[in-house]
User: Fold these one by one.
Assistant:
Number 1:
Amino acid sequence: MPSVRTIDNVNELLGGDHCGELPRGLADRTFGDQRTELALAAKELRIRDPRPAPGGSDTLAYFLQWPEEVLMMTDTPRYALSFTAGALLASEAAVVAPVYLRKRDWAATRDRVKDENLLQGRVARSNVRILGALIPRLQTLSEAELAIVSEGTSTDRGHLMWVAACRRYVLIAQFAEEVLRERFLTLAGTVSYEDYDSFYRGKAMWHEELDGVTDLTFKKLRQVLFKMMVEAGLLTGHGQIEPVLLSPRVAECLNQRTPSDIRFFPTSVA
């Protein structure tokens, strides 16, 4: 398979003038070794399935926004749905992040937290479960972001743990941008269980694994996601959207990515 190293090569793989050129911003996105696979997956999907992508967008545009999901729609990765342990885990992150910043080794961090019962779980099994959910989220954060989680305010920590959940779980990221932020920008003012159900049904058309969950699991996923938003200060307990003012330090970290991860928040700041 040819290597995709330039914007022109990606355009060629995706069909050139027929589907429009990728914007220059894509050159700043980091797909690693998957860039060729992503481009070919997008092209294959458009040829194989002429339906519009979710939200009615062209498959190419959808690829640009959610390259991970293009792979999912071609029977590669599936949505990860293992986010029901402990919701946002911000207080636990405040314990674990400083340990990692001292050791610089996630395995050693896990062992120390577990052996010394730093999370103060009443049973060892509980600590293992929480760490199994928390560490993969913390691993999505940069060292600068981990430092904020370790020593910053509870508000900043909550915001970054929401970002960590979005980076770890594509379903949460898409809900944050397509529903939470969109409803904020359109002045809807609220996010309800019905909004989530509609979003979920739309995704289930493209993801068999969403169709396959039990009713109990479906409700648990929804409950935990809404609990995360409340704990992160994005939503009230009654579903009112809370406009977010990110601290300069957090905003600077989130703007290191292209597109900026500020897109996961109910804020008008780009």
Number 2:
Amino acid sequence: MCKRDFQPGGVKAVKVDEQKRNIVHLDFQNGFEGRITFLEENIFRYDANPAGEFEAYAKPINEKHKARIQQRPDESNVYTKPKVQVLKKEGMSVILCGDTSVLIEQAGAKLQIRFANRLVMEEAEPLALEKDAAVQTLVRRKGEDFYGGGTQNGRFLHTGRKLQIVNESSWMDGGVASPNPFYFTTAGYGALRNTFAEGAYDFGAENAGNVVTTHKEGRFSVYYFLSAAEDRRSVVQEILRAYYHVTGNPMLLPAYGFYEGHLNCYNRDAWSEESGDKAWIVKGSASHTSKGSTRYESGMATGYRLTEGLHSESLNGERPKTAIENYPETVDAPYEYSARAVLLEYLRYDMPLGYFLAERVLCTGRRRGRRRQQPGTDCRGGRQRGKFCKVYGICQQQRGGVRTLDREQLIS
């Protein structure tokens, strides 16, 4: 928790801007200044900064970076910028805008958000800022579930978990590859922290009654998106629609992108029944209640080299025939650890599959320091290209898109 000296204290004044009636200025007792800006009745931005500075866009990690979180400035005429009014009621300053009510406790500056007469968000503690940390602590409501945070490998429901909003460049289970400082809940709100700084979101892992979101910077800036829908599906749809109104619509995926995809590096890792870097319990087509069998995976990183007695992953269950100077003679390539075997499992059980990448870096030569070159992984015109592409149908670039192969071609 941050020190009390860095919390805003009580509220001294809450005033609507004389020129821009969709903006409210906040003056806190500890010298903090804040601002609430309504873009739509269900979308508003909340900023707090001890220095009283409210940058339109988040500061990039690198000065050369030009990316922005918002697609347009808050002053854009695309937004309706509805007028707001401020009232005082029972020790609270109340900011009203249509069906939205933002309540700020005058004594402690804790925030509440109500939408369509429903409480959707409530701070458990006052906002806390330090030089290198902005922390918001919320009340976690009973039955509330949490989603978002970008690519959090292996999970999309985050209730009771702690997320790292950090690019770990990790594609393994539990790793983070493409973080996003946006989350939304079934209680009826989404929050987009306007920052590129590293962060962490705790959705009840350390304290089941609280949600704690932190970013490593000394200012607080967030967009809130609200929904009053009764069912969860509609809540999600309305929140995402509001989110895209600020960030811009996502790129439309190709047809295969709406289905499950399988990505792996079948020219990199090794397996053993005895020991390894990571243990996996494999149950195959058996019941989920079955004991299963344990398999150990090693590698999972660039630069890994095979050691004696291991089973190598492969494309077709075959040992390589070229660049084998670092491929031990006692290492085999069993069919069960091949890309073909995994792909055929999808077909055997009729599982929908949009795409299958047997080398997820698009066959550009991630070879463990030339530990080996898998047969058929040269997609730049080498002699092995045909075999790989005929089997998997994912590297043959043609006009209008990527060639795909049907079931009979894959099995043959």
